[in-house]
Design brief:
Spore Coat Polysaccharide Biosynthesis Protein SpsA, Chain A, Rossmann fold, 3 domains, seven-stranded parallel beta sheet
């Protein structure tokens, strides 16, 4: 059984012992499940240590003189027994969940030298969410008296320093640095100096914003820097500047944008700052194209890039914003009012203009040509050295041309001329398949493209005896999927029933499929079984004997087909559905554009166990190949995007 590290919580007091009593009481209410040791150093308080002296669970050290903040904490640390030290001001009140969250962050997968919380006033206003330094040593408290973006209230990020009002460090490292340097005694800048040493040695200071600490700012030393203990803040700033002048020379003048730039620093020296602009928050459990976007975001984040996403319409943020945060991708945009419809204050950073104006992005990726058409001029103006890359999602003009050729009336978002002009204005295009890259190479020779197919699923094995359904999957806000079911109802379904001697319903799964249930039932009774959206597709694929994708038009690689193969389900589709896939995948698919030919194959696979088993084996092999191929191509995609950034910087 893994035990939680022990924590020594240490406070220093000089008078105002009532604050110490209150702060200790808040620590006792902590939900932390490890051992907590409480230590207090009394700096020869006038009137003595007060009520703390009678606390049996507090190790009290009484000094003969006031040695100051830093030296007193050093003495406590030397006597402490905990694995970790929580250096705490006595004018703080710690939220019951804060300590466990701070410890989880310092002990997490990403190494941290120190962890600092979110500080708040008792009326809920933000005091500080990370401390940042300018070239002159001036400090900046991020989001002070501002409304921070929701994602940065829930996910960790880097800070230049953390205030010793509440700072969690490893005890052995604190002692290894000699604790707080006595040159800054009695107080101020000793915490910033320690954090700079940690930072220099590759041990970043991390903000854990879900750990809330309430701070009576100035309750112990006041706010006037011209007198009392606070006067040492001015003196020690000069000492700090003298020590760290070479490092600070590279720091910019401090403002909100400069602080955010430091907070969103790449994790590796070669990492890039990448801003992804999207019409919406990605919903990977509802659309294959959204899962593809998430796969790209995840690949960039894992490579060490700092990645953020702005959504023009940040709907369903409670679910899908949290999903991005889990990946380590902060999101920005204006979410709708909460469940009770109560308006919320707008975050200080919410628009694309805010992000572009404040942070020097290396790459800006824009999903969908319609959004790119509107955004490219603004991005060029505000970030002329940034690479602009358009994610086409699929080539809209190809999809529209195919609909016209098939005699299908389909909505058109952007015309071909405008779409191609948008791609020309960019520094490169991410396409949805090798075929789309070839089309753009023909239309726009010399334009850099990179194919990133829809996200592949890790292969899953299911028992054969559970497979019984003929299944189709799709997002029915996307018209090609609606047309596919209509083709089934009017032609394919009756043809299958005629050959089989019975009706074989098409089990339809996916977002908004239930909106069409009545129309499909009226057109062909018993031909369609509508399931609707499901949060987990695995049970549906486990019960699917054959996956039928009767797509008459569209573009790009079809995620639904790759998902079926990952679950070992034989796939019958059209040439449109098969487009853009690897040869091994094409060999696993049964491709038929004629309704009678497709009906013949479907009836055979639904009734002939031998034919089905052969196709199932091919499907499973293709699913494994897709998974391995995508893992290799992901690294190549990241390298391609980085090359776009370097090329744009040279051109700028």
């Amino acid at each position: 059984m893994v035990t939680s590290p022990s924590v020594s919580v240490q406070l220093v007091q000089w008078g105002k012992t009532d604050l110490t009593v209150r702060s200790l009481a808040s620590v006792r209410r902590s939900d932390y499940d490890g051992d907590i040791e409480l230590l207090v150093y009394d700096n020869a308080s006038p009137g003595g240590p007060g009520a703390v002296a009678g606390m049996s669970d507090v190790a009290l050290t009484q000094g003969d003189e006031n040695v100051g903040f830093g030296p007193a904490h050093n003495r406590l640390a030397a006597d402490a027994s905990g694995d970790l030290l929580l250096i705490l001001n006595n004018d703080t009140v710690v939220d019951p969940r804060a300590l466990s969250r701070l410890v989880a962050r310092v002990e997490g997968a990403d190494p941290a030298g120190a962890v600092t919380p979110q500080y708040r006033e008792f009326d809920g206003r933000v005091l500080e969410m990370g401390g940042y330094l300018g070239g002159g040593g001036e400090g900046w408290q991020l989001f002070r008296n501002l409304t921070p973006p929701p994602s940065l209230c829930r996910m960790p990020y880097r800070s230049t320093y953390g205030s010793a009002a509440c700072l969690l460090v490893r005890r052995d490292e604190f002692l290894g640095y000699g604790g707080f340097d006595d040159v800054f005694a009695p107080a101020y800048y000793e915490d910033t100096d320690l954090c700079m040493k940690l930072r220099r040695d590759g041990k970043p200071v991390i903000v854990e914003p879900t750990a809330i600490v309430y701070h009576y700012e100035g309750a112990t030393a006041g706010r006037d820097t011209s007198q009392g203990l606070k006067a040492f803040q001015t003196r020690n700033r000069s000492r700090f500047l003298q020590r760290w002048a070479d490092d600070l020379a590279a720091f910019p003048s401090m403002n909100l944008g400069a602080a955010l730039t430091q907070a969103m620093s790449p994790l590796t020296p070669k990492g890039q700052r990448i801003l992804w602009l999207s019409p919406h928050l990605p919903k990977p459990d509802r659309e294959a194209g959204h899962a593809r976007m998430v796969a790209m975001l995840d690949a960039l984040k894992r490579s060490g890039d700092a990645v953020a996403l702005w959504a023009e319409h940040a709907t369903d943020a409670e679910r899908y914003g949290l999903m991005l945060e889990t990946l380590g991708v902060p999101w920005f945009g204006l979410a709708r009012a909460g469940r009770w419809g109560i308006p919320q204050p707008s975050p200080v950073i919410s628009t694309a203009h805010d992000l572009l104006s404040r942070i020097p992005w290396d790459v800006v990726v824009i999903s969908f040509p319609e959004l790119a058409q509107r955004m490219i001029p603004e991005v060029r103006k505000m970030r002329p050295t940034a690479a602009i890359v358009v994610d086409d999602v699929d080539l809209h003009f190809v999809r529209h041309e195919r609909a016209l050729a098939a005699g299908i009336s389909a909505p058109m978002g952007i015309d071909k001329e405008s779409e191609l002009a948008t791609y020309t204005a960019s520094d490169g295009v991410i396409t949805a398949s090798d075929h789309e890259s070839a089309v753009l190479d023909s239309e726009l020779p010399g334009l850099p493209t990179w194919p990133f197919a829809v996200s592949a699923n890790e292969p899953v094995e299911h028992p054969d005896h559970e497979r019984r359904h003929l299944t189709f999957l799709g997002n029915f806000d996307h018209h090609p999927n609606v047309d596919a079911v209509e083709w089934w109802v009017h032609e394919l379904g009756p043809a299958v029933a005629n050959r089989a001697g019975e009706t074989i319903p098409l089990r339809v799964v996916g977002t908004r499929s239930d909106a069409f249930e009545g129309a499909w039932a009226a057109a062909g009774a018993g031909l369609v079984e509508v399931v609707g959206w499901v949060p987990d597709l695995a049970p549906e694929f486990a019960s699917a004997r054959v996956f039928c994708a009767p797509l008459r038009y569209g573009a790009g690689t079809k995620g639904k087909i790759l998902a079926a193969l990952a679950h070992g389900v034989p796939v019958v589709t059209t040439s449109i559905g098969a487009e853009g896939n690897h040869d091994v995948v094409l060999d696993a698919l049964v491709v038929a554009d004629d309704p009678d030919e497709m009906a013949e194959v479907l009836v055979e696979l639904m009734s002939d166990d031998g034919a089905w088993a052969q196709r199932r084996s091919l499907a499973a092999a293709a699913g494994r190949l897709i998974w391995e191929r995508q893992r290799a191509q992901t690294a190549e995609f990241v390298d391609w995007l980085h090359r776009r950034a370097r090329h744009a910087m040279r051109a700028g």
